[in-house]
Design goal:
about 30% helix; Uridine Diphospho-n-acetylenolpyruvylglucosamine Reductase, domain 3; Uridine Diphospho-n-acetylenolpyruvylglucosamine Reductase, domain 1; binds flavin-adenine dinucleotide; 6-stranded antiparallel sheet; about 300 residues; alpha+beta; single chain; 7 helices
Length: about 300
Amino acid sequence: MWFKDLDKKLKELKINFKTDEPLSSYTSIKIGGPCKRMIFPEREESLLKIIDFMEEKGIPFFLLGGGSKLLISDRGFEGVVINLCSLKKREIIGENEKKIFLKILAGTRINEIIGLGIKKGFGGIEFLGGIPATLGGAIKMNAGAFGYTISQLVKKIKIYKNGEIKIIDSTDSLWEYRKFKESGIVLGAELELKKMKTEEIKKRLKEYLEKRRKMQPLFEKTFGSVFKNPASSYAGALIESCNLKGYQIGNAKISEKHANFIVNLGGAKATDVLKLMKLAQERVFKKFGIILEPEVNFLGCQL
Ligand SMILES: Cc1cc2nc3c(=O)[nH]c(=O)nc-3n(C[C@H](O)[C@H](O)[C@H](O)COP(=O)(O)OP(=O)(O)OC[C@H]3O[C@@H](n4cnc5c(N)ncnc54)[C@H](O)[C@@H]3O)c2cc1C
């Protein structure tokens, strides 16, 4: 088995790690069995070295950001979870009269970027306020809300792929609905935000959070929207039309507040969530002939 070699390498690179770590604590829906190792690289250099090592040895690994768009199997993952949340840094690299430019590492939380903006007087990313995501995860998913997406703020993206670091300019062709099309590990990005008065940023943040609180089960255990919105409709409205709001399997339930959210009432299993997803897909297809495509990412399980 690869554990011995890996542990030795991790110690050599001074990367903290945990053994048989339950993944439920690291996902917003609080579901997921253990992984063999969870590693916490704090520096880009050691992250790249350990990735090269794992690729060379054929050790399976998975990238974890804020865990807010993930459904992980109850059996867990027989490999290494790279927890990127320790890889964080936010740095102002330039400004002009109206704008401010930042270089940010992938593991930085979106809420930390908003917090820095409130202190230093820049904004434009408040539409993502309240989402427990990292910058890397938000880029990978092209996170968006209220008509805005993170792609509109990203200028450059730093990626690690096939043993090479690439810094690419953000162009429209790289993005689609809830997707960054380039593969590889997002190490960080440069963002362009607007200079704004602290009071204005706080006001906008409050308005967005209020809207979210009204529309979504913001303070419950979920992974955000379950399905992508089909081209001409809303997944939530379609599921609601099938009378599935409040439908429960095991301890997982289709939210009463928003039918495109599944809530873990406590102790729900990944299999309960998958059954609910399947049911919603089947009912919507039967009634409307529309195939709902999952927005959530899976680890160790699938629909
Ligand atoms: C209450 C709530 C509200 C939400 N509201 C919204 C919303 O309004 N809009 C929206 O778009 N989303 C929303 N989400 C979903 C979620 O926050 C976003 O999809 C977010 O972008 C996921 O980021 P993360 O860091 O948590 O990624 P994770 O869930 O950790 O990972 C998501 C995927 O990205 C990959 N990944 C993570 N980091 C990297 C990296 N650095 N490089 C390469 N791949 C990586 C993972 O392997 C995984 O496949 C919501 C979630 C919750 C719980």
